Amino acid sequence: MRVFVTGATGFVMGAVARALRARGDAVTALVRDPSRAASLAALGCELVAGDVVHPTAAIPDLHRADALVHGAAIYEIGVTPERGRVMEDTNVTGTRRMLDAARAAGVARIVYVSTIAAFGNTRGAVVAEGYRPTSPPTSAYEDTKRRAHDIALDAAKSGAPIVIVQPGQVYGPNDHSAVGANFRALAEGRLRYRAFEDLGLNLVHVDDLADGIVRALDRGRAGECYILGGEIATLGDAYRAVAMATGRELPRLTLPSAIARVAGRLIPSMREVVSSADGVTFWATDAKARAELGTTPRDLATGMRDTFGPNAGPVP
């Protein structure tokens, strides 16, 4: 296929671009600055300069594309109001405009990359596709992705050929998120303390997520959502898996939640960190994707060995 991809300079969608090229698909990537996308050019991707908020440059290539995989998004917790506005533009406005452009171009297949976080805090329950949030968003990221998710659902209801995938917490080589930075610090013996170990996550290795997205492109049913996870666990479980994979000892110091809550009241940038992690679970089952798409994600222990263990190698 000829696949048009957004967000391919990022962690997740870069893995998707590699997976598509590995099987011989032609990939066109929308990038803000082609000079900073050398790795995509090296893969043989065609680069188009532009962005999702103003996708005019993408329109000619969308007309030639067999499919769109829209994964461009900003994932940050604890943002300033200014950064929140940029996140709003990219995650919400950008999604609406990319989906509208793809529909106008007659693209036959669209995959939208949402998130389990669109469900909000599941309060200890393991939910499934179709679950509707019951509490306010815990962060600007969650708020924008929740609204973008609804945009994709509305487009699907109106007949657009959209398949929605909802990843869990992604990890793997070259993950530069705050969570990934903590995993890497532990693997390198630099993590000084642990916090929010009860935070509930469905942790998925980036290569398994990329495989699931490609499978959704190939065989996902239009109008359907598919949760793409790996193992339902806690942040503490993930720390222990990193420690086991690397032979590192866990930091003895654990930051009490009460102190974190005080910091959240005093430090604006910490407010969202606390609200999105203290006593929160983002738990959802990927049973549907396993049954319908044939996904077989690795377990957490294996994934952390593949990421940080002695045989782990760099991602090209």
Strand and helix layout:
Blueprint (H helix, E strand, L loop, with lengths): L1 E5 L4 H12 L3 E6 L6 H6 L2 E4 L9 H6 L2 E4 L10 H24 L4 E5 L26 H18 L4 E6 L1 E3 L6 H10 L12 E6 H14 L5 E4 L2 E4 H12 L10 H10 L1 H8 L11 H6 L7 H9 L8
Parallel strand pairs: 1-2, 1-4, 2-3, 4-5, 5-6, 6-9, 7-8
Antiparallel strand pairs: 8-10
Helix pairs in contact: 1-7, 4-5, 8-12, 9-10
Profile the largest sheet: 7 strands, parallel
Query: Stretches where pLDDT falls below 50 for ≥5 residues?
Result: none
What would you call the shape? globular
CATH architecture annotation name of one domain: 3-Layer(aba) Sandwich
* Mean pLDDT across every amino acid position: 95
Write down how many β-strands occur, each being a DSSP E stretch of 2 or more residues.
Answer: 10
Q: What portion of residues is helical?
A: 40-55%
How do the SSEs run, as a string of H and E? EHEHEHEHEHEEHEHEEHHHHH
If you compute it from the alpha carbons, what radius of gyration comes out, rounded to the nearest whole angstrom? 19 Å
What class do helices, strands and sheet pairing give? Answer: alpha/beta
The CATH homologous superfamily of one domain is called NAD(P)-binding Rossmann-like Domain
What name does CATH use for the topology of one domain?
Answer: Rossmann fold
Report on the structure:
This protein has 316 residues and is an alpha/beta fold. The protein has a domain at 2-171 and 202-231: Rossmann fold (3-Layer(aba) Sandwich), CATH 3.40.50.720. The chain has 12 helices and 10 strands. Strands 3-2-1-4-5-6-9 form a 7-stranded parallel β-sheet, sandwiched between helices. It has a 3-stranded mixed β-sheet with strand order 7-8-10. Helix 6 links the parallel strand 7 (169-171) and strand 8. The model has no long low-confidence stretch (mean pLDDT 95).
